[in-house]
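User: My collaborator sent over this chain with a note saying "see what the structure looks like." That's all I know about it. Can you take a look?
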Amino acid sequence: MDASSIKEAADNYNPDHKEGPVARSIEEYTAKLPSDLFLWAALGSMAVSATLKIMKKDDEALFVGQWPAPFLLLGLYNKLVKVKGSDGEKDGPERPEGANAEVRNAGK
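Assistant: Without extra context I'll predict from the sequence alone. Here is the result:
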């Protein structure tokens, strides 16, 4: 990540932006799920895919073999939402005063 992309991200930061009720309800539902559920789902789908491949069911193995990446991405999203929340209002670390100025000066 270079200085110009950091500056662009800081310039686009809008603390007034809030997520809608759909995002909030999804966040509340997924926060109840254990984070490692998605990891186990990914590992399980890899095992099922390998089993199907051994059984010479190549099409089914390929289909199930596509599942681990989305499961891992969902797990990452779940973890991020638990830590920070979808709109950044959880008890995560706050942006210190002057953080935007420091980022703007980094590109100079």
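A starting point for your reply to your collaborator: The CA atoms of residues 80 and 86 lie 8 Å apart.
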